[in-house]
Specification:
Helices cover 65% and strands 0% of the residues. By secondary structure, it is mainly α. It has one domain. Helix 1 runs antiparallel to helix 8, helix 8 crosses helix 10 and helix 9 crosses helix 10. The longest helix has 34 residues.
């Protein structure tokens, strides 16, 4: 038996995209879930599904871009014949890390851009909720606290701390001095921006719309749908990093960020929290090396 919202009778057809127009929520709807504002992209379950597919397309595009950029960088460095060996290094060179990140970020931008352009208003910043407020500085406490909470949770199960920190060590690579500062800046500033845009801006909104009824107002179905979207977003965030030793911690942190994005209606606090989380890891790596110069 069909239930209200299954066929989306209250929402009607997806509104046409108006170039240059803001979504109905406007730029000052901070603190309001996009579900509560009719017409905010993605406006229907069908649009949510399309946004999710655009996310998959963006992810694949990022992997291809990263591969091509690494090939070009390897050729310029005269190390094309060593690429397979370099990819397996615990501390790869700066050019390998940098080009990999830039390629992946291209995909994390391309998916949201495509979703906004095709099934949104065309205003990516407004459609994805890229807004900041002074209160978002609370994210510093959230990010630092989350990093220490993850470390404490893992502590009883880690017999080799250096192996547990290997993912961060590989991300910063063999960089030192100025090279380390560039990679650190990319990790603390670039990664949080593009990953939040993709995972909490695009995928979370897509899945929340897909999993919840269109009818406004609280309901058990809506609560279940939001919980499901938050859980799925965190799991996808953990899987995307392909670091199995840290999967549980990354997934839990991803779910926390999803809750923040849903409750605030924007990505500002997420990005600050994510940046602070990464900063603690980078500082730990720098400390383990005895500083930036070695």
């Amino acid at each position: 038996m069909a239930t209200p919202g299954d066929n989306e009778p209250s929402a009607g057809p997806s509104p046409p995209r108006l170039p240059g127009a803001l979504p109905p929520s406007g730029p000052d709807a901070a603190g309001t879930s996009f579900l509560e504002v009719p017409g905010t992209p993605p406006a229907t379950r069908a649009d949510g599904g399309r946004w999710f597919l655009y996310g998959l397309l963006g992810f694949c595009a990022g992997e291809v871009a990263a591969y091509l950029l690494v090939l070009v960088a390897a050729a310029l460095a005269g190390q094309s014949d060593q690429l397979q060996r370099i990819a397996g290094l615990a501390e790869p060179p700066e050019w390998y890390v940098g080009m990999s990140l830039v390629g992946i970020w291209f995909g994390f931008w391309f998916g949201p851009w495509l979703a906004s352009r095709v099934r949104g208003t065309g205003r990516l910043v407004a459609d994805l909720g890229v807004r900041f407020r002074p209160v978002d500085l609370v994210g510093v406490v959230i990010g630092v606290g989350a990093q220490f909470a993850v470390d404490l949770a893992y502590a009883p199960f880690i017999s080799n701390p250096s192996k547990f920190g290997a993912p961060t060590q590989k991300l910063t690579g063999a960089a030192h001095g100025g090279g380390f500062l560039v990679i650190a800046l990319m990790t603390v500033v670039g990664a949080p921006f593009f990953e939040e845009l993709f995972f909490r801006g695009l995928l979370l909104r897509a899945m929340t719309r897909m999993f919840t009824p269109v009818a406004l107002g609280p309901s058990a179905r809506r609560t279940a749908g939001v919980v499901g979207a938050v859980a799925a977003d965190g799991l996808l965030f953990g899987l995307a990093h392909a670091e199995w030793a840290q999967f549980a911690g990354l997934a839990a942190f991803g779910m926390l960020l999803a809750v923040i994005a849903y409750r605030t209606g924007r990505l500002g606090m997420n990005m600050v929290s994510h940046a602070s989380f990464n900063l603690v890891a980078v500082v730990a790596v720098a400390g383990s090396r005895g500083g930036l110069v070695h």
